[in-house]
Amino acid sequence: MSLDAVLSRIDETLPEALDRLFGLLRIPSISTDPAYRGDCARAADWLVQDLQSLGFEAAARPTPGHPMVVAHGGAGGPHLLFYGHYDVQPVDPLSLWHRDPFDPAIEETAKGKVIRARGSSDDKGQLMTFLEACRAWKAVHGALPCRLTILLEGEEESGSPSLVPFLKDNAEELSADLSLICDTGLFDSARPAITTMLRGLAKVEFTISAADRDLHSGMYGGLARNPIHVLTRILGRLHDDHGRVQVPGFYDDVDELPEAIRAQWQSLAFDHRTFLGDVGLSIPAGEDGRTPLEMIWSRPTAEVNGIWGGYTGAGFKTVLPAEAHAKVSFRLVSRQDPQKVLEAFRGWIAAQLPADCELAWAEPGGSQASVMEIANPAFEAARAALGEEWGRQAAFVGSGGSIPIAGYFKSILGMDAMLVGFGKDDDQIHSPNEKYDLESFHHGIRSWARILDRIAR
Amino acid sequence: MSLDAVLSRIDETLPEALDRLFGLLRIPSISTDPAYRGDCARAADWLVQDLQSLGFEAAARPTPGHPMVVAHGGAGGPHLLFYGHYDVQPVDPLSLWHRDPFDPAIEETAKGKVIRARGSSDDKGQLMTFLEACRAWKAVHGALPCRLTILLEGEEESGSPSLVPFLKDNAEELSADLSLICDTGLFDSARPAITTMLRGLAKVEFTISAADRDLHSGMYGGLARNPIHVLTRILGRLHDDHGRVQVPGFYDDVDELPEAIRAQWQSLAFDHRTFLGDVGLSIPAGEDGRTPLEMIWSRPTAEVNGIWGGYTGAGFKTVLPAEAHAKVSFRLVSRQDPQKVLEAFRGWIAAQLPADCELAWAEPGGSQASVMEIANPAFEAARAALGEEWGRQAAFVGSGGSIPIAGYFKSILGMDAMLVGFGKDDDQIHSPNEKYDLESFHHGIRSWARILDRIAR
């Protein structure tokens, strides 16, 4: 009965929960851009106050980058650590947003009501589902469901530079029986999912320079080296005609998918036509001979995320630029090591560099792929709880996204992680007009109440 | 004797001539950027007033773009038309300028005094050499040396969209016996030159788009098409391993250099080590088996002048962009037709476009290469005059730059063109810290006085 009371409480107080979420969404906490440093601090302080209002002992803990919000509360039962992140992606191109990304609103769409704002789905809306579940629980029971530690990061969208040192420095304080991570999605718009495989990430930016200044293409064209040509010639060979990455040794530490998992994925009947159709595409563009789910869940990738050089403004400028630049990232799987992959990539680029050119590297970073310990009984408990809330059995799925925290919790804190989230494929995270379905937010809060009820029992 | 008086007058009044040039250089007449439209009009008005002060009947004539300055003055002798342009290139990257590009100053350098400012060499400083020569002549003789028409364009750096219609609409008024064009350089820092070959230009901008929005490289990476990959893959094949442009039929209308010209160019003993060394390069990067002078004067090129796509800001964003863009230009020679070249290029790109991608084209434009009529006696007269002023025989040279006006004067007005200019290879035109040597300006004025003295005799 008490669970029903908590669920009713959640339903009755949804408007207030939305007001609170909107307050957090109004803070432009873009972690990758130094211009928003103050806003990241404001978002951290906002969360500290909200956690304190729930009876948590909470503080914004300084790091060399943006603060970590750490809170402790509750007692008894298993000790659970909940992780989410309060920072968001940049909003450019701003012109493609149909409203201010930081002025949240409920919008009616053909698919139902959505919360429109940068961070609504990734990850402010998701982390608030857990806090709201705790709030309702406390209102009904007068206490939190069990011993809880909350860890909210402010650098997830910018490579988490402070995360590992912070976990190491505070290992004892942060170690729990199990961590809950809310930064993933449903399998499809109605079927809940628990993510058990995550791809890793390796990223780096580089510059190819030739002449010591921009040159007039009339005076020098045909004689002087054009670094844009060098860049396109090299990056144009990043994949072969079969979609295979050409960096030497790239696939050395990549394992084939276990038959059991492959079979379960086939049973999911993933419809790539709909998945791609939702974003205006139709044809899988990855490795030959791989299924669409393999391409996004269990195969490594190399992607140029940004490229620039020469004159890119209005009109035309017949210039031979002095420099050309690119930002490249790799999604990693199995045992691929980020440092090893970046090293091989650097060597591969350098080996193709013609005379009179120079290379400069910046912003290297990365994290390994991780696979969850689904033997942990919490996974079956959560699967049952999610099934009750959504009316369909929860799927154990992979995720193409990189959530390094799961791997760090295991390697640094010796703690298993369970990833449960309520985002949808069409949430447009990292894109203009990001949204979070009102249904995701509402049933997400209810889902956590059910999961806590089963795990904390 | 009277020529000596004019030359002395030029020497005595150099400070006033510099003041006038600085006034013109302070106007940021960047024609390619709509934000500077008003400044282009101001530069035109400034020139109209200066020409009126020389007794010219002058006016800024409206066009769909920036105004044309047209002036008529003098009487008797041959009818000469002088052409220059008052618009300038954009100044980005502004951070690389060591002073405000539009706050001109005389600077002492290891190579002597220079006039530092955007447009000092291309082309405001050059066009003022002719106006100052006229001013000195008039001061000494009380009249201009012969019948003169002045045509100063404001769109040379942005493809001259209004030029052809204007020449056609005013053909009778603008037709003269010979046109003098001052937008070229010395052969080297001390040897004067008359340019007799000019490369043409074909330019176009295009966009490759895939998904209808930016995508999260974790969720979609490996499955969704990345337009930056498509762009680099195609542009990476623009040249083969021997530096030959791969667009089908590109070399069909390209003639080999006549032996006589080839011999004369060899006698120039062009030192490409110095030419490239001045900009931090050392190795010719053009077609195999071509001399450096051929590469820049008589061979066609394909250059990517700008490329952009995805996230190019501070930090990192693991995005699969919806679009990728490039600005590409071709330097043309012999009988190459700009429209034909652009058509072949569009076809070549389209043929390599994978499924799920779309192409959009913008800003096409171009002009044919041109070869001067050196049989015209004015060429020998100018060669002698320049030899007297600089103490070294003037060279007949080619130029890699595109000055379509020479071709239009011939095709539309049936008038030969003679290109004489005083720029130097290290003037950094189209680059940060553009300069014009004080020597170029001073001896340029004197050179025109000598040329007019011989031609107008």
Q: Can you walk through the features of this model?
A:
- The structure is a homodimer.
- Chain A is built from 15 helices and 18 strands.
- Chain A has about 450 residues and is an alpha+beta fold.
- The first copy, chain A, has two domains: about 5-200 and about 370-455, Zn peptidases (Aminopeptidase), CATH 3.40.630; about 200-255 and about 300-365, Alpha-Beta Plaits, CATH 3.30.70.360.
- In chain A, helix 1 (about 1-10) packs antiparallel against helix 15.
- The longest helix of chain A has 18 residues, at about 125-140.
- Chain A is globular, with a radius of gyration of 23 Å.
- The model of chain A has no long low-confidence stretch (mean pLDDT about 95).
- At the A-B interface, strand 9, strand 10, helix 7, helix 8 and helix 10 of A face strand 9, strand 10, helix 7, helix 8 and helix 10 of B.
Fill in the keyword field for this structure:
four-stranded antiparallel beta sheet, Aminopeptidase, nine-stranded mixed beta sheet, 457 residues, 2 domains, homodimer, alpha+beta, Alpha-Beta Plaits
| Gyration radius from CA atoms of chain A, angstroms | 23 Å
CATH topology of the largest domain in chain A: Aminopeptidase
Our count of helices of chain A gives 15
From the coordinates shown, what is the CATH architecture of the largest domain in chain A?
3-Layer(aba) Sandwich
Largest interface by Cβ-Cβ < 8 Å:
A-B, 102 and 100 residues
The total domain count of chain A is 2
How far the N terminus sits from the C terminus of chain A, by CA atoms, comes to 13 Å
Mean of residue pLDDT values of chain A: 95
Protein name (chains A, B): M20/M25/M40 family metallo-hydrolase
Pfam families (chains A, B): M20_dimer, Peptidase_M20
Domain Peptidase M20 dimerisation (chains A, B): 198-356
Keywords (chains A, B): Hydrolase, Metal-binding, Protease
